[in-house]
Design a protein that fits this description.
Layout: H1 2-41, H2 47-59, E1 90-92, E2 97-99, H3 101-111, H4 117-121, H5 133-143, H6 157-171, H7 181-185, E3 190-192, E4 195-197, H8 203-210, E5 215-217, E6 222-224, H9 226-236, H10 247-259, E7 269-271
Parallel strand pairs: 5-7
Antiparallel strand pairs: 1-2, 3-4, 5-6
Helix pairs in contact: 2-5, 6-10, 9-10
């Protein structure tokens, strides 16, 4: 009787191990197929069209002052676009605040071109039949940092403050589902549908995820910025709408960008 029980127990362990192995291999196979799908999508990225349009808008004279953005200081000096995305968000003395790319572009549209803040922020994400300046500018400027490592500073007191606030937002649980950013992005080997969810608290995953935005979304036929990515994450959590270039959005970006330091920027990318 005792021998029978031992044999049955061993068989149970073996079956459990085999089932776990099968699931592990299935998960691995699924992840590999998703990666092959992404590689196939990468051939002929339509984001190139946004980049070209953005370069034209950068040089175009607009607004009441009939000026271009070519004297805009995005963090490395007036007019410099090469490598600027690798240092953003950062503190700017002229505005006395931490700004990411989009909020800095809003500042330059107001100061250089004479637009009102409301005009500069209008329709930030575009959409079908509504192509706006912001998404094209983001595509062009970020493309000038391809192949460069992220090196976002945290030395200024306001940069450290933004990082701390962003971290608090990342872990804040709220809404009807009691979600937080950390619910999906603070755990290893987690997936929703066919999308693997990076653990943004680990350097490897944070670098891989952050450096692939902005991106052209095949399912939407649009280029989407990192501000949009955060906006859509808040929507999926059923949180109140995240206001475009709000201090909260910039603080959360600062937290995630610093976590991605050292990663090589490779965007605009292409996603499903």
């Amino acid at each position: 009787m005792r021998k029978t029980v031992v044999i049955a127990a061993c068989m149970g362990v073996a079956i459990g191990f085999a089932s776990g192995l099968a699931l592990s291999q299935q998960d691995k196979s699924t992840i590999e197929e998703i990666e092959r799908y992404r590689q196939a999508l990468a051939d002929g990225n339509p984001a190139d069209l946004w980049e070209m349009r953005g370069e034209g808008i950068w040089k175009q004279k607009r607004g009441p002052k009939n000026a271009s953005l070519e004297k805009c200081d995005l963090g490395l000096g007036p007019g410099v676009v090469k490598g600027v995305y690798t240092v953003l968000p950062k503190y700017f003395a002229d505005s006395d605040k931490v700004e990411d790319l989009e909020s800095r572009l809003v500042t330059c549209m107001v100061t250089l071109q004479g637009l009102t803040p409301a005009e500069a922020r209008k329709d930030p994400f575009g959409g079908p039949g509504k192509k706006v300046a912001m998404d094209a500018l983001v595509a062009y400027i970020t493309s000038q940092s391809r192949g460069m490592p992220m090196k976002v500073s945290g030395k200024h007191p306001k940069e450290r403050e933004a990082y701390d606030i962003g971290r608090a937002i990342f872990f804040h649980r709220s809404g009807p589902y009691d979600f937080a950013c950390a619910t999906c992005h603070a755990v290893d080997n987690q997936r929703i549908r066919l999308q693997d969810l990076p653990n943004l608290l680990t350097a490897k995953d944070a670098q891989r995820a952050y450096t692939s935005w902005p991106a052209y979304r095949v399912s939407q036929g649009e280029l989407r910025s990192f501000q949009w990515r955060l906006y859509d994450c808040f929507r999926q959590q059923r949180f109140p709408e995240l206001e475009f270039v709000s201090p909260a959005s910039i603080a959360l970006t600062m937290f995630l960008a610093q976590n991605a330091n050292g990663g090589v920027f490779n965007a605009p990318a292409i996603k499903r």
